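3.2 Worked example (two chains)
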Amino acid sequence: MPLRLPDKLPAIDFLKDENIFVLGTERANSQDIRPLRIVILNLMPLKITTETDLIRLLSNTPLQLDIHLMKVKAHTSKNTPVEHMKAFYRDFEKMRHEKFDGMIITGAPVEHLDYPEVTYWQEMTEIFDWARTHVTSVMYICWAAQAGLYYHYGVPKHPLSQKMFGIFPQVPLSPRIPIFRGFDDVFYMPHSRHTEVRREDIEKVPALEIIAESEQSGVSMVMARGGREIFVTGHSEYSPMTLDTEYRRDLAKGLPIQKPVNYYRNDDPQQGPLVTWRAHGNLLFTNWLNYYVYQETPYNIDDIH
C-alpha cells in the first residue's frame, strides 16, 4: 500500500527512484480509507535525509500511512532550508490537540548537554507527556530514547570514553514478542553516540523491560507500557552511506574519530560499506506498525487516551 505524504516533499522523488509507491495528499483524499496517522518529531540536523530514511522503512507496510512532520518551536534548524520547514513542518503547539496512531521521535546532536541544558528541553517534556495520552505507540530513537527513559523513568545517561560508532550485533532477549517476529537470533544495528544507558539502571525500574542488547554496544532496545513506548538506542533507519558521511565529516574537521566498526568492506573506507542491517531495520518498523500501532489503536482515533 502507498504512503500518503505532503505534496512536493523532497523524499517523494528520492523514493520514487527506488520504486517505492507514495501517494500525494490530493489523490489520498479521494480514497475511502482510514489511514494510520503517524507523526515524526524530527530533531536531526539534516532533516530531509532523516525524513527519507524513516519514510523508506515505513513504506514496507501494507497499511496506508498519513505522515505528519513536527518540530519544536524553541529550536531553529541551521541545516535545512527555511522554506522546507515552513512547507512541511508544524510546531508542536499547533498539533497538541490532534491524536496520532503512532509517533517517532528521532535522535538529536545534543548528547554532550545535560537534559535541562537543552534549549528545547521544556518543550520536549511537554511532548513526552502529551504523547502518553494522544498517541497509541511511540518509538524513541537514540538521544530521544535516552531522554525518554530519563524523563519518564529516571534512567540516567553515562558518557562513553570513546564514541560508539559502527554496526554491532544485537541479541533479542524476548524473541517471541511481536516486535521481533521474523527476526534472526542475531541482528545488526548501527550506533553513533557518545553516551549510553546501562542495564543496571534500567533493571531498577520494574516498568521497563530490556528486550535487546549487545556485548559490544550495550542495551539497544527497551520496552514499556506493553509496547506503547519502545526505546531504541541505535539507528536501524540509517541508509548505507550515513556512517561514512559522519566519519568523513569528522575527519575533515580534524576531530578524533575512529573508523566505524564492522562497517567497511575489509575495514577499508575505499571499498565502501557492507550493509548488514537493512533487512532487520525494515522488519523492525513493519512489526512496530503492525503489532503496536495498527492492531492496538482504536478505529475512532479520538478514543486514544
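3.2.1 Second chain
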Amino acid sequence: MKQAQLEMLDWHGSGMSVMEMSHRGPEYTSIAQKAEADLRELLAVPDDYAVLFLQGGASLQFPMIPMNLLRGKTRADYFNTGAWSAKAIAEAKRFCEVNVAVDSSDKHFTTVADRADWQLSDDAAYVHYTPNETIHGLEFHDVPDVGDIPLVADMSSTILSRPIDVNQFDLIYAGAQKNIGPAGLCIVIIRKELMGNVMPGTPKMLDYQTHADNGSMFNTPATYSWYLAGLVFEWIKQQGGLEAMAEINKRKADKLYQAIDSSPFYANPVDPNYRSWMNVPFTLADASLEKTFLEQAAKQQLLTLKGHRDVGGMRASIYNAMPEAGVDTLIAFMQEFERQYG
C-alpha cells in the first residue's frame, strides 16, 4: 500500500496513475506481464498451464467450472466441507449431476471423513474441493488423492500462504481479497489441455480459452487490482518466497491454537488434523461475554474478530498480511481477558 501510495499520481515517471492508463498501452502491459511472471515464479507454474487474471470473484468460477470442464460428461464430484464448497455445489447443480463424494455437514464441518469412506465416481468430469473453509476454519493439509480425475481447488483463502505443487491440480482458482490483493480480481491457473471444449451456449466471456487467447485482456481487466496484486507478489518474494511465508504462517497458527487449547476459557471445535492456518474460530466458555470481549478487543485495535453469523463465537483471520506481532497481541489480550472474567 505504501508503494502504491508513492506511485498513485505518477507511475515510474510516466505522468499517469495506473488507474489512468490504457490496459493495452506499453506501461500497463509491462505491469501485467511482470505480475504474471512473478506469480508463476512464486508458485513454480509449469508452461502447460495458463494463468488468467479475471473478474467476478471466486463466485463466478462456480458456474464457469462446469461450463468449461464437463466436456460432454454429465456428472462432477464435490467435497462438501463448509459454506464455500456448499455454494459451489449449489451452482454446479444447475449444469450437471453433482455427486457429493465427501460430506462433512453431519460433523458440523469440523472434520473430514477417512479416505476409505469417500464416494468418488468413476465417470466424474472433475473433482472439486475447497482446501480452506474460511467460516468454519477447516483446512486440508494434504492434496486429496482422486486418481486420474481432474482436480479443481478453490484456493481463495489459502493460496500464497505456503508452497504448493501446481502439477497436483488441474484447475486452481482464487479470489484476490485474502492473500493476493484487493477485491475485484480472480486468478485462475488451468491446465491448457482442459480448455476449448465448453458447453453449448457458453458466453465467450465465460470461456477460459477466450481469456487465455487474449492475455486476460479480452475485455478491460481489473487493472488496479491486478497492479496491486503484482506489488504483493513482489513483497512476498522480498520476504523470502512461499517457504518463508509458510514458516511465519505456521508459527502464527501454532501460537494461537496453543493459547486456545491451553485454556479452559477458550475452545476450538475443529479436528486438529484439519485446523486452518488462515482462519481460527474460537468460542468463550461464557457466551454472554462475547460482546464485552469484542468491545475490549477493539480498544486494543484488535478488529473484525466477530465470528460468522452461521457459527457464532470469534474468528481470527491471520492471512499473510497479519504480522506475527498482531497474533502475539491477540494472545496477550485473550490471556488478560481470561484473568479478568475467567
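3.3 Remarks
The chain has a mean pLDDT of 97.
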